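About this split. The held-out portion is used to measure sequence recovery: a designer receives only the structure tokens and must propose an amino acid at every position. Recovery is the fraction of positions where the proposal matches the reference. Here is one held-out target exactly as it appears in the evaluation file.
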């Protein structure tokens, strides 16, 4: 703690480990005006009597935890810029803190001096902006929070790919074994055992192949989602080669078939209304498929949430002036204006099991293909998504 009056914005660092406090204070004190506290409680006392610009806190501490401290600081001292400093393996708590809007940035321990100096400079600047305009401060924090989420997503994607690939390889090994299912069934038929046990084993052997197929399909789907998440957080590289033109109709039909189960679950119907010949478009078929599945599932979910008996998701198609227009219309719950304006912001979701990446992904994929993606929605009436793609010359 400094006895002399502070010069420049005050940075408060909260950590229960003395060694960490000393290292940070020593290496930052030439650049910043540092205050340290060994606990959340102590930090709050300091905040009550000092104008603190930046609060950097450890997450795991005895007594008051980092997130609890941040929640109180957010309420009592909304103008201070909040950050967490924690170890790499603690991604979960950081993500929660960011999602709750408690912090805009995080610092991974052990930190490098130049990196920390840069982050603290940014925070001090953001704080002084905020003194001039609270609205600007909020905008800046929000942008930063989203950028941070993006980089966390990148981290997670990297860590998720490995186990998923090994899972896929293991499924393939099991699928090889499952080729011997008929022999196994014969052996069970001929072996001495109770009738009930035989029944159970035969059932197991019979189910092995389809179960593994489902498992493989679900794993591949996960792997694609993860790739999509990775793509979201990094710009697409232009390879310079033009994509081949594809017929969109088989893809529309395929997407409808994939979503059939979803619409059945929500007791809604899914239909296609358009010509049997559509102009070709230049987009990868997997990407168009991904877009359609996302939009149709959103529609099916909205219809299910409304719970009315004649739920419908309809796909309309038409060609107009060198453009293919696909319209996906549902008569589900629709969106209130505030949801509509936020739909498409990465991680924005109103569904407990949603990831909030569906629309963001669609907008990105259609945008890269040179098209447009529009959503119109009315609460209580339904939603119409319009996808416009240039047709291949
Ligand atoms: N057809 C629709 N009708 C009503 N609300 C919708 C519709 N489509 C999207 N929304 C709203 O927009 C939000 C964001 O949609 P988005 O597809 O991006 O994410 P999600 O469906 O919540 O999660 P997921 O990443 O699993 O798709 C949804 O949570 C929902 O509130
Ligand atoms: Mg969705």
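Reference sequence for scoring:
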């Amino acid at each position: 703690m400094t006895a002399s009056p502070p010069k420049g914005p005050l940075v408060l660092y909260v950590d229960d480990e003395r060694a960490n406090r000393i290292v940070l204070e020593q290496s930052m004190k030439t650049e910043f005006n540092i205050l340290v506290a060994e606990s959340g409680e102590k930090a709050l006392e300091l905040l009550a009597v000092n104008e603190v610009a930046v609060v950097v806190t450890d997450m795991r501490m005895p007594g008051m935890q980092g997130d609890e401290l941040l929640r109180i600081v957010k309420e009592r001292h909304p103008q201070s810029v909040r950050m967490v400093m924690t170890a790499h393996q603690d991604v979960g708590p950081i993500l929660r803190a960011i999602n709750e809007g408690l912090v805009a940035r995080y610092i991974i321990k052990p930190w490098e001096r130049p990196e920390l100096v840069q982050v603290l400079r940014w925070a001090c600047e953001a704080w002084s902006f905020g003194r001039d305009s609270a609205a600007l401060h909020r905008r800046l924090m929000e942008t930063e929070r989203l950028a941070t989420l993006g980089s966390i997503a990148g981290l997670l994607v990297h860590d998720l790919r490995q186990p998923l690939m090994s899972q896929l390889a293991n499924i393939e090994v099991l699928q090889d074994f499952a080729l011997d299912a008929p022999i196994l069934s014969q052996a069970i038929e001929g072996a001495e055992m109770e009738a009930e046990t035989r029944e159970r084993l035969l059932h197991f052997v019979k189910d092995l192949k389809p179960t593994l197929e489902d498992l493989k399909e679900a794993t591949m789907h996960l792997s694609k989602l993860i790739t999509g998440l990775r793509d979201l957080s990094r710009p697409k590289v232009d390879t310079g080669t033009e994509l081949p033109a594809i017929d969109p109709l088989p893809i529309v039909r395929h997407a409808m078939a994939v979503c059939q189960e979803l619409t059945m679950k929500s007791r809604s119907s899914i239909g296609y209304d358009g010509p049997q010949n559509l102009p070709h478009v230049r987009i990868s078929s997997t990407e168009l498929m991904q877009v359609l599945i996302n939009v149709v599932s959103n529609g099916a979910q909205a219809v299910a949430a409304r719970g009315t008996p004649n739920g419908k998701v309809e796909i309309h198609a038409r060609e107009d002036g060198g453009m293919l227009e696909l319209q996906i219309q549902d008569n589900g719950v629709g969106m209130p204006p505030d949801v509509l304006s936020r739909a498409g912001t990465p991680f924005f979701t109103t569904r407990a099991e949603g990831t909030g990446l569906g629309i963001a992904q669609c907008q990105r994929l259609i945008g890269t293909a040179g098209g447009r993606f529009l959503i119109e929605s009315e609460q209580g009436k339904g939603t119409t998504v319009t996808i416009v793609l240039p047709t291949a010359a």
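Annotator remark: The chain has a mean pLDDT of 86.
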